[in-house]
Amino acid sequence: MSKVIRLGTRDSELALWQANTVKDQLQALGHTVKLVPVKSTGDLILDKPLYELGITGVFTKTLDVAMINGDIDIAVHSMKDVPTALPKGIVKAAVLKRGNYMDIMAFKDNEEFLGSRDAVIATGSLRRQAQWLNRYPTHTVVDLRGNVNSRLEKLYNNEWNGAIFAAAGLERIGLEPENTIGLTWMLPAPAQGAIMVVAMEDNEEVREACAQLNHEETDTCVTLEREFLRELEGGCSAPIGALAYINKENIVTLKGVLLNVDGSKKLETELTAPLGKHQNLGIDCAKTILARGGRRLMTELASAGTEINIFSTKKLTPQQQLSLNLSVNADSDDFIKINFNRISPIVLKKEHKNVVFTSKNAVEAVLASRDVSELDFENIYCVGRKTRRFIKNKFGKITHYENNAKDLANHLVEFIDGTEVTYFHGNLSLEELPTILEENNITVNAVEAYRTKLSGKSIPESVKGIMFFSPSNVESYLKENSADKVAYCIGETTAKAAREHFTAVKVAKIPTVESVIELVNADYED
């Protein structure tokens, strides 16, 4: 080829290393190559995390424009920075043999912070941040931007414990610090460690020259990883990791992960296929993630920063959060805190013919004071399915349960064996059950097993509905918030407390969190 190939590249040390690698390989094949350095938006804007720049391919866009304008013939990129959908007219010309795909942790003094509750870790990647916080949820992650050299300098000039880097980047420019830890548990970005060459689709001569550099195994693996990414519709702003590899038996394995930003939600998958029948692995892995709650999680990521419309006064589990419809942008927090009381050994050593619990908290408080094997409870009565299930798991038996305190009291009046009960309760428990029993000549020995502390907070004005799970939840919420919203209640007792303040009150069919979620979903259909 007689034409000089103009190779566009960012002018950072790492980008130039990659460009020179491509240049050397092309020149070894007899081609003439000239480097054309170009500044990218990602290099120029260093005061914001990548995901806040608002565009994908932040490190490739400037080079794409230069190529479309005819200023360069090919461009060289770290493949993990390249959007899964290339601009019209630009195509992949070659993928070089992959380097080290791992992430590594560089640290200053020692590794003791890994076992500490508090530590500060620096990274500009949401994927690294999410996976780190999933593993070390009490640590703090701070933003880290700039080229490799400047990021290392920032690590040593700040009170941080460590910073996360792509191993390949440090190795390629000979800057790997003395103190590093390979993060073998952290899935890399799709195509991390791979170098990609792109060219104009209609430039057949240049494409033929570059095709000789293509490494087939690397190309196969990173293609699957990028298909996984594309199917999830994730870009720089989604914490997505993927890694494909081919073993000696020609079996292709693809691992994928999707998380939320704080790492509290994590969905993983791993699929294998023989080489030659591997083409759908990327899409199949993505569909597995989406089917297990990934669609909801991607919607949450996309709607981050949008207005919250539902608030739960009980902290929802990741699975409960994922079961909300896509049109629900929910937040949650515990509006009551429970502290167990020390129950007198004299009380717990006694034989109790009839024991009554109206909450799981009371059962847990009793068991916190004495082992179940030391308790002599003949008949156990309770309120709520969750409490019944917990008692059955711990005691192996239960005499009777009802969905609310009033119904249980009426049952006891009619069917109790004897005329006395021991009632374990909280400081804010309603008087309905003991009142009914005492009115019917049943002696109630009340034992305060736990104390409930109201710990509500002010919620955003955008919230249209509140999920309540106890009268105490309602009381705590109203300390700092208005009642001009829809109250979604777990049961009739909670609904009764809500109706004293809220105009719109809806009650779950059965007293479970999932049933309250069904109430919300019915009002916010996708």
From TrEMBL:
InterPro entries in alphabetical order: 4pyrrol_syn_uPrphyn_synt_sf (IPR036108), 4pyrrol_synth_uPrphyn_synth (IPR003754), HemC (IPR000860), Porphobilin_deaminase_cofac_BS (IPR022419), Porphobilin_deaminase_N (IPR022417), Porphobilinogen_deaminase_C (IPR022418), Porphobilinogen_deaminase_C_sf (IPR036803)
Catalysed reactions, as listed in the record: 4 porphobilinogen + H2O = hydroxymethylbilane + 4 NH4(+)
Pathway(s): Porphyrin-containing compound metabolism; protoporphyrin-IX biosynthesis; coproporphyrinogen-III from 5-aminolevulinate: step 2/4
GO cellular component: cytoplasm
Gene3D superfamilies, sorted: 3.40.50.10090, Periplasmic binding protein-like II, Porphobilinogen deaminase, C-terminal domain
Keyword terms, alphabetized: Porphyrin biosynthesis, Transferase
The keyword Isomerase appears for this protein: no
Segments forming domain Tetrapyrrole biosynthesis uroporphyrinogen III synthase: 348-517
SUPFAM superfamilies found in the cross-reference section: HemD-like, Periplasmic binding protein-like II, Porphobilinogen deaminase (hydroxymethylbilane synthase), C-terminal domain
Family: Belongs to the HMBS family.
Function: Tetrapolymerization of the monopyrrole PBG into the hydroxymethylbilane pre-uroporphyrinogen in several discrete steps.
Protein name, as recorded: Hydroxymethylbilane synthase
Organism: Maribacter litoralis
Lineage of producing organism: Bacteria, Pseudomonadati, Bacteroidota, Flavobacteriia, Flavobacteriales
